[in-house]
Design goal:
- The structure holds two protein chains of two kinds.
- Chain A is an alpha+beta fold.
- Chain A is 35% helix and 18% strand.
- Chain A is built from seven helices and ten strands.
- A five-stranded mixed sheet of chain A has the order 3-2-1-5-8.
- Chain A starts with 13 loop residues before the first helix and ends in a 43-residue tail after the last helix.
- Chain B folds into two domains: 30 residues; 190 residues, Immunoglobulin-like (Sandwich), CATH 2.60.40.
- The chains are: A alpha+beta, B mainly beta.
- At the A-B interface, loops of A face loops of B.
């Protein structure tokens, strides 16, 4: 048998038949997927990176679906037409034609190579124009939105009327994330509240082991390493709720290391931030000064007793079980 | 062995293996400890506040890990101290918590946990004196915290003086030993399992202080098993 050699007048033109089945089927499935499933593909459209990632996933799907359908159609066609029962022989027909079809092989290899290379380029472009596409870029991001550098300054400000980047620090610790807002006095909170329509700069770090900040619906994911400021960007586009999970196995309560955040209107965010700044002021005064990273040390590790009264200075080295300084 | 015998043996082995897997998974998924669950749902009429009394000790003093720091809870039925950190509470009910803190303190790794959060009124009481923030860099520092992250509850448990001559070295501790009494109230959420933990890395000698008793059920963390009231 041959795919499409035309050497045997009785042999149907199989490739044309397969194409006739595959092309309309793939086109219909792609269109149905794009319009019916595409808008619901995770992670949604709460942020620019989420929308971008959803678009990327949908592109991958509409390219992969025809390939998958093509394989299935070919398999089904082969079983239907070239099974031993139908051909009438338990042995495959021999001869040159059984060894392969050069044209089909070239098309298959060429087409899939083009698809893979296109997707590699597409993914790279999406990563660059998406400012890292929500992924942690380390302390010196290669791609950053305009104004991001200013957000890292201690004097950075944010208000509903400006378009400044809002820096938010994510602090991982066993076993909860907390969040600091340097543009609002550096207060710390267990809640992650963000303003809509705002470029956000997440500065992710850890006070102990490696965690990973995964704000699923924001499409932001960045490892939280002790001593490292891992920066990730996204831009909120509308109000909504999202879930934060630790995605790095970090100990006994790793499974419970999650919380829920909200993207609210700019005015609602400002109201929450200013009221929380005021309410937490007395505790904020006790916090370590805002910094991109914090050095975990022996303090708090039950390293020893100390007397009543003044308890400074403390060890600044990472030694556990070290004797605590006397008063 | 006959074909039937081999088949029966194989089926039997598969069933045994399946049973072991089921038991192992069920054991992992079932909250609780060797001590079981301490039931606080029957200690008072339905809808009435629950009184939960616990103590924190620097060293449990017995068992496989006598040097480990630990929580203990007072049984609502017998009044005895129990080494169990899974507590069954009625849903949507006010809980009055009393913590007898017998351990010393230190500065918090993250002073965020020095702030009282999620309690009724946003405050707690230290030896009868109300407070909402405790600077762990002063006084005796913070020994432990009681926190239920899922409901935003966190209370610092202030440490006792390490130089006290009557520091308790073996649980259960009595009030003749140096201690701080911390009280606060919170309302239980809906039905569910809520983990609670200490946020002071008090596992001495373990990486970042969060191993040992911090990573073993029945010592510095457990569950609130909230059930229908």
């Amino acid at each position: 048998m041959t795919m499409n050699q035309g050497s045997d007048d009785k042999e149907p033109r199989h490739l044309r038949r397969i194409l006739a089945i595959w092309l309309p089927l793939a086109a219909v499935v792609d269109v149905l997927f794009w319009f019916l499933v595409g808008p619901h593909v995770p992670p949604g459209d709460l942020t620019s990176t989420a929308s971008s990632n959803q678009f990327d996933f949908n592109i991958l799907f509409v390219i992969a679906l025809p390939v998958m359908i093509g394989v299935w159609v070919f398999l089904g066609y082969s079983i239907r037409n070239w099974s031993a029962k139908r051909v009438g022989s338990a042995e495959p027909k021999g001869g040159a034609a059984a060894r392969g079809n050069l044209r089909a092989q070239v098309w298959w290899i060429g087409l899939t190579t083009v698809i893979v290379l296109f997707l590699a380029g597409f993914g790279t472009v999406e990563l660059v124009i998406g400012n890292g596409s929500g992924g942690g870029e380390g302390p010196n991001p290669a791609w950053a939105p305009t104004g991001a550098n200013a957000a890292e300054l201690a004097s950075a400000t944010w208000s509903p009327t400006d378009n400044h980047v809002l820096p938010v620090q994510v602090i991982g610790q066993q076993w909860q994330f907390t969040y600091r807002y340097p543009t609002f006095g550096g207060f710390e909170s267990s809640q992650l509240i963000l303003p809509a329509g705002t470029e956000i700069e997440f500065n992710v770090t850890s006070l102990d082991v490696i965690h990973s900040f995964w704000a699923y619906q924001l499409s932001v994911k960045a490892d939280a390493n002790p001593g490292v400021n891992n920066i990730a960007y996204t831009k909120t586009t509308k109000t909504g709720n999202f879930t934060v999970r630790c995605s790095e196995l970090c100990g006994i309560w790793h499974g419970a290391m999650y919380n829920y955040g909200k993207v609210v209107s700019k005015s609602a965010f400002e109201s929450w931030a200013t009221s929380t700044e005021t309410a937490n002021a007395s505790n904020t005064a006790n916090l370590a000064p805002y910094a991109s990273t914090y050095t975990p040390d022996a303090n708090g590790a039950a390293g020893g007793y100390y007397e009543d009264g003044t308890v400074t200075p403390y060890s600044t080295v990472e030694v556990y079980g070290a004797k605590q300084p006397a008063s | 062995m006959s074909k039937g015998g081999r088949l029966a043996s194989s089926v039997g082995l598969v069933l045994v293996a399946f049973g072991l897997v089921v038991v192992a998974v069920a054991t992992l998924l079932t909250p609780g400890t060797p001590g079981g669950v301490v039931d606080f749902t029957k200690a008072q009429p339905a809808g009435q506040p629950v009184n939960l009394t616990v103590q924190t000790v620097g060293a449990i003093g017995y068992g496989p890990h006598p040097t480990w720091v630990s929580y203990l809870v007072k049984s609502p039925s017998t009044g005895r101290w129990i080494h169990d950190t899974t507590w069954q509470l009625p849903a949507h009910t006010l809980v009055h918590v009393t913590v007898m803190q017998y351990d010393s303190g230190s500065p918090l790794r993250n002073q965020e946990w020095g702030q009282v959060q999620g309690t009724v009124g946003g405050t707690a009481s230290l030896n009868g004196k109300s407070f909402s923030v405790y600077n762990s860099y002063t006084g005796n520092g913070v020994g432990h915290t009681f926190a239920v992250p899922a409901i935003g509850l966190s209370v610092p448990l202030i440490g006792v003086s390490g130089s006290a001559t009557n520091v308790c070295g073996e649980a259960p501790c009595t009030q003749k030993f140096a201690h701080n009494k911390i009280t606060f109230s919170f309302t239980t959420p809906g039905v569910g399992e809520y983990n609670w933990q200490c946020f002071v890395p008090c596992g001495l000698g373990w990486l970042y202080g969060n191993g040992g008793p911090m990573s073993t059920q029945n010592f510095m963390g457990g569950f609130l098993d909230v059930v229908k009231s």
